[in-house]
Here is the input.
Amino acid sequence: GKLVKTFKGHQKTVWSSRLTDDNQTMVSGGMDGGVKVWDVGEGVIVKDLRANDAPVHCTLFTNNGRNIISCGRDNTIRIWSTEGERIDTLRGHHGTVYSIASSPS
Here is the structure.
């Protein structure tokens, strides 16, 4: 296929990226510990969420599109509003969290 767009903003390797259902917004996370929210059409970062210094292995939008979930090497799952406010940090894993999923309801 043909390269359509390149998104630059992470300082290190990106390990996760997900689009909203309307393909207008993307969330990404990577080795730099950042979670970034992108305007896909413009190719620019609209929110830069600092998860922490630990790498982020997974990101996704909840099915209602109102929240972002990230997880990573700090053994946590973090829930964010799409406005960038951290809603909760779920602790209890004894190792890196590599993936997450959101139920359809």
Notes: The chain has no helices and eight strands. The longest strand covers residues 44-50. The radius of gyration is 13 Å.
